Amino acid sequence: MWRSVSPYTFLAPFFTLFAAFGLFPLLYTAYVSLHRVELQTPGAMEWRGLGNYTALLTDEFFWRALRNTVVIGALSTVPQLLMALGLAHLLHYRLRGRTFFRTAMLLPYATSVAAATLVFAQLFGRDFGLVNQLLSVAGLGPVDWQDGTLASQAAVSSIVVWRWTGYNALIYLAGMQSIPAELYEAAEMDGASRWRQFAHVTLPGLRPTIVFTVVVSTIGATQLFGEPLLFEGSVSGGISHQYQTLGLYLYEQGWGFFHLGRAAAVAWLMFLLILLLVGANAVVARRRSRRDEAAAVAS
């Protein structure tokens, strides 16, 4: 009897903590999103049904925050993963000081998001920022990185790219080291160059790792909060909300306007958006895998 019960006993602490700090808040947030709840009187709930969701879908600032989240996510995720893949490919080969470079890759990830964002805010300063000084040396005019829409979104994205490129590079490096060396030896005997080895051996072997990093980066981009908040220090994301993400919009609704019910609705819409994006990535990856299997069988 103990042999059959003991595995559940060992797993009980995890499921207890998950139910208390994961499942219950998730379900309670869904319950709150169906009510009108104010921060001043959190105990007084007024049933609204889908009223909070209807109000969000008719709010132009919600759609602007959603658009900003998608744009900043694309500007940060695509360059980040491409650069991480290139750095991992370089570190995969024998390189002098590889241990130092691998350790240095993690330093941006270990840096506090507050410290990193404050430094980047100074770098992108309009009057005395280093980036504008470099642009002036190149003969270009200064850019107001905190006022322009695309400029501010690019500046916020650069912080994300700086912090997470090294982390993803080490994940790719670990995936590359799990690829059998015999595949590279066979490709080299066939006369394949390093580029062809990378395209036909490394990338197919890294496909599960690439899918994992895309999913994790997508989730992180959807929940982006610290970088845009500290870039200017405003929950509105600039004067015209030009880089306000869904995370900032949620914070503004809950702790700026004191509408906890509407903030809970934003949280659930973000949760559903993440499920949609992760599901889309899974479908694309599954179709690609089936296509490759069919091509392998045909050949």
From TrEMBL:
Signal peptide: none annotated. Its main location: membrane. The keyword Signal does not apply. SUPFAM superfamilies: MetI-like. Keywords: Cell membrane, Membrane, Transmembrane, Transmembrane helix, Transport. It is a multi-pass membrane protein. GO terms for cellular component: plasma membrane. Residues 66-279 form the ABC transmembrane type-1 domain. It comes from the Bacteria. It is found in: Cell membrane. The chain crosses the membrane at residues 12-31, 70-91, 103-124, 265-284. InterPro entries: ABC_transporter_permease, MetI-like, MetI-like_sf. Gene3D superfamilies: MetI-like (1.10.3720.10). GO terms for biological process: transmembrane transport. Belongs to the binding-protein-dependent transport system permease family. This is ABC transporter permease. It comes from Streptomyces showdoensis.
